[in-house]
Amino acid sequence: MSMRWRDTLLPRSLFGRVALILFFGLAVAHLLSFGLVIYERMQTSRAMMIAYVAQDVATSVAMLERMPMAERAGWIDRLNRPNYRYTLTGMTAAAPADNAFAQSLATALSSALGARYSPIVVPQTGARDPLQLRVGLKLSDGMPLAVDLLPPAMAISLWVPAILIAQLGVLAAFTWLAVRVATRPLSQLAHAADSLGPDLRAEPLPEDGPTEVARASTAFNAMRQRIADHLAERIQILAAISHDLQTPLTRMQLRIDLLDNNQLTAKLRDDLDMMQTLVKEGLAYARTAQETTEPAQSTDLHALLDSLVCDYADAGRPVRLAGHFARPIKTRPMALRRIVTNLTDNALNFAGAVEIAAEAEAPDRVVIAVRDRGPGIPADELTSVLQPFYRLEGSRNRETGGAGLGLAIAQQLAASLSGTLTLANRDGGGLEARLSLPLAT
Questions:
Q1: Per residue in 364-406, pLDDT tens?
Q2: How far is the C-alpha of 117 from the C-alpha of 121, rounded, in Å?
Q3: Which residues pair with 144 in a beta bridge?
Q4: Is 299 left (phi over 0), alpha (psi -120 to 50) or beta?
């Protein structure tokens, strides 16, 4: 079976696949056992029936032998049984039945009747079932006697199917329980990995349970701690470098003021301003990576965005709010405001006007879109610009694009809010930044 067909037929989850395979195997084994029991019971029932028929026919023949011929017809109906009937008729010319049941019946009859009689077992005329047989023999006075046998039926009580279904239900329940116990550590591991924020702060996995589970939990906790330590070290190095650069930059600024060459002074001031910007954004990025202590609270998203737009309007910046999102969300409002501010500032640097809109993406998610009609971003760099210190060399250069940390900070804050930030070029030109957030962080 190819991988495609296997993925189509089997459930997508490991829990579903293991449960289905395990239950199917147990159910097949159980049904085979049940079938073997029924088959063995049927064989035993047939053997008992053959022995009983042989003894009953021998007894009936002995009774008929002691009766006058004129009285035999009146007694023949009294000898009938539910599974076979006696008739005082001769045999039709037919080949003896050759199945195992007929041969066993003939052997048993010969043994029970003795050598005096020669019973013949043939198929009944027009019978479709090979077990629908007729036994023919002659009494000592030459009168023919036939015994017509009905096919032996296997009687099954009405409660047997109910018990079988109940047993399959018990198998299904214990299969579900066993697979759930076996796969729960994997689910906990996946949940722990998904719940890690940018700061890698999360409750450690419990290091108990079976040996393999405990080892996996221990390894995951150690890996998370190593990554967190490494990330914290990088952030501390960035913050320390950015902070320490401020002192020499300040001294350079004072020394520039003492220069008499105005043209050289202007160029040096531009370089210092650029370096100051890099230092400030480096510190901002470091603080963003470390500050995740703001508590989540119910927030009126429309009011937050409207106040932000009003701030831009007061500063004379062309920013407008489209639509109205009435539902409150539970999030960290200061972090959310900083994300939208960074996206809006980034759009204002390359476009004449910016539009902000909030709309429902799913019953439990909202999307905040920041749209502009600027030059956009090459499609192959839409993901790269979200990385720290990445700048485009085209229209979004150093003079207009800053140090390349605005989008990186927005991306990092979005992850801390359990959200996602994506960029896409708009039809007709421009860029759209889409911040997708859960209604409850």
A1: 899 999 999 988 888 888 888 887 767 665 444 445 555 567 7
A2: 13
A3: 138
A4: beta
Residue 351: pLDDT band (50, 70, 90) is confident
Separation CA 49–CA 40 (nearest Å): 14
Task: Pull the structure tokens for residue 428.
Answer: 């007709």
Cα separation, 351 vs 137, whole angstroms: 112
pTM: 0.49
What ranges in 258-367 are assigned the alpha helix state H? Answer: 262-290, 301-314, 333-348
Which of these, 9, 52, 203, 50, lies nearest to 133 by C-alpha position?
A: 50
Helix (H) or strand (E) holding 433: strand 431-438
Provide the 10 A C-beta neighbour count for residue 268: 16
Q: Is the per-residue pLDDT at 25 higher than 50?
A: yes
pLDDT band at 198 (very low <50, low <70, confident <90, very high): low
For 236, the enclosing helix (H) or strand (E) is: helix 211-257
CB count in 10 Å sphere of residue 217: 20
Stretch 72-92: mean pLDDT: 84
Cα dihedral angle (173, 179, 183, 188), rounded to 10 degrees? 10
Label residue 120 left, alpha or beta by phi (over 0 means left) and psi (-120 to 50 means alpha): beta
CB atoms within 10 A of CB 387: 12
| 48-57, 246-255, 336-345: the lowest-pLDDT one | 246-255
Say what percent of the chain tops pLDDT 90: 14
In a 3-state reduction of DSSP, which class is residue 401?
helix
State CA 409 to chain mean position distance: 34
> What's 2's DSSP letter?
-
- What is the tens place of the pLDDT at every residue in 289-309? 555 567 889 999 999 999 999
Q: Measured in whole angstroms, how far is the alpha carbon of residue 109 from the centre of its chain?
A: 64
Q: What is the Cα–Cα distance from 218 to 214, expressed in whole angstroms?
A: 6
Question: Do residues 379 and 386 lie in contact, with contact meaning Cβ atoms separated by under 8 Å?
Answer: no
* Coil vs helix vs strand at 436: strand
Cα 150 → chain centroid: 54
Q: For residue 376, is it left (φ>0), alpha (ψ between -120 and 50) or beta?
A: left
Q: Any idea which residue has 């009580």 for tokens?
A: 157
CA 254 to chain centre: 65
By the 8 A CB rule, do 403 and 278 touch?
yes
Phi, psi of 210 (to 5 degrees): -60, 160
Partners of 87 in beta bridges: 146
> What CA–CA distance (Å, rounded) separates 134 from 150?
9
Interstrand relation of 420-425 and 431-438 (parallel, antiparallel or unpaired): antiparallel
